[in-house]
Amino acid sequence: xxxxxxxxAFSREIIDFQRKNHLTDTEMALNSHVSVExxxxxxxxxxxxxxxxVATLKDYMEHKPSGK
Length: 68
Prior knowledge:
Blueprint lengths: L2 H19 L3 H8 L3 H8 L7 H12 L6
């Protein structure tokens, strides 16, 4: 899979997660401890996130506590 396709797929994953859980970028940033700027840039495909940011966001999305 090309790098741009990977970014696009991860961007879609974040957007779908936020819709499902009714989260804004700010709420997701506060809960996941990833900056809102990183989240914006990943979603708009302006930034290739490093592996630690991807791991942090994926971990948060997989283990999101109720109400957060």
